Amino acid sequence: MREDLLHFIWKYKKLQLTDLLTTSGQSIVLIDVGLHNHLAGPDFFNAKANIANQLWAGNVEIHIKASDWYLHKHEEDSNYDNVILHVVWEDDATVFRKDNSEIPTLELKNYISRELLMAYKNLFDKRQKTFVNCEKDIAQVDSFVFQNWIERLFFERLERKSEFVLSLLKNSKNNWEQVLFSLLLKNFGLKTNGEAFLSLSYALDFSVVRKLQSDVLQLESVFFGMAHLLNDETILDTYYIQLKKEYQYAQHKFDLKNEGVIKPEFFKLRPPNFPTIRLSQLAKLYAVHQNVFNKVIHAHSIDELYSLFDISANIYWDNHFTFGKSSKKSPKRLTKKFIDLLIINSVLPLKFCYARHLGKDPNESIISIISNIKREDNSIISNFKNHGVTVKNARDTQAILQLYTEYCTKNKCLECAVGNTLLQGNV
Fold first, then answer.
1. Residue 106 pairs with which residues in a beta bridge?
2. Do 197 and 364 form a contact (C-beta atoms < 8 A)?
């Protein structure tokens, strides 16, 4: 037995509602189960019940065992003084208020149908499952219910990403351009170099970027120099030497310090993702577009964003991946797939937070953009598709990733619209 099932039973009144008795034999007529509380304090606020022919209004606390009241030290917490009913699976202890009066207890196991318990058992039975608890039944959930849940999950994931955006905003003292610069750096670095690139953004004030962005070579020199990529004395490449000179000048002029910057990795990366290529591409973005932040904020379509990020690395990198080593010629242009990742992980969280900052509702615009981005492909998405889930676009994949990481892997089935619907349908 799990406490979340007891919460589900109480919240949706999935118990016998007639002839209810406390463990001491008093009659209970349930009027209002109360408001489910997910924070500290009693589990349900402002419940109403007629107990022993007397109307009570107050809070309800739910436990597996009645003795959990003392295990959790509720008797020492004034938040529980207004509990009118203790709802438990097993009554193994008598619970008293501070005035020494007994708190009425309802033992649920006497009032729950066998069908509900079997449905719950089947949902959490791992013996015949390889992926998620509801894998056999998820495709049966009504499409209207599922699509509403998917949209909610997408914004839930966006809310989670916005927490990082707001932390960047606080650290930058409300400089939105610095926030975007940090987000782009982190996501240009992808998983391997994300933290290294982010550390560069912490060390480099965006005001310096703004002053240098009219000259892409100067901007590249600062990015490379700050990232510890200009320290090799053996490289005699003309471009490399020029970058070093530009960096030394900028370092002195702007008092640049890179002691806290993490040197990015090359190991195990595909050459197009080498930090040299990605930093050059980012420098080119800011050199080509003098006001990236405004263009991001005012972009209302996916095509506007694709146009904004349609850039290539410096021409030097057409036949290089690292300094001083020639390679087969190929322009290092941002791919559509990479731009999609930038939009999902940098642009949309920023637009979401900035619109809210202005008191505007960004949802419609964001849904319009994300719905026009192709779905992502990974093992999690493939597994859901194999179990009958329709995945149309990036909104769906972002929502499904949220579903899997925050609900499925944590067995939060009773907080999920899918698990909730399956259980209610089996009662």
1. 87
2. no
pLDDT value of residue 1: 81
Q: What is the pLDDT of the chain when averaged over all its residues?
A: 95
CA distance 223 to 261: 11
Q: Which two tokens stand for residue 239?
A: 């471009």
Q: What is the CA radius of gyration of the chain?
A: 29
User: Which range is least confidently modeled, 125-129, 148-152, 248-252?
Assistant: 125-129
- Looking at residue 425, its pLDDT comes to 67
Cα–Cα distance list, 378 to 31, 113, 224, 382, 402 (Å):
48, 40, 32, 6, 14
Give one word for 37, left, alpha or beta, with left for phi > 0 and alpha for psi -120 to 50. beta
Residue 37 main-chain phi, psi, to 5 deg: -105, 120
- Residue 107's SS3 state is strand
Which among 31, 26, 34, 23 has a CA at the least distance from the CA of 51?
26
- 362-406 pLDDT, tens digit per residue, is 999 999 999 999 999 999 999 999 999 999 999 999 999 999 999
Angle at 99 between CA 95 and CA 105, to 5 degrees: 25
CA distance 110 to 124: 22
Q: If we measure between CA atoms, which residue out of 285, 319, 64 comes closest to residue 188? A: 285
Neighbours of 386 (CB within 10 A): 10
In this prediction the pTM is 0.85
Span 270-313, pLDDT tens digits: 999 999 999 999 999 999 999 999 999 999 999 999 999 999 99
The dihedrals phi and psi of 326, each to the nearest 5 degrees, come to -75, 150
Going from N- to C-terminal start, the domains of the chain cover 3-112, 175-370
**Residue 321 DSSP SS3:** strand
Q: Which of 29, 333, 227 is nearest to 219 (CA)?
A: 227
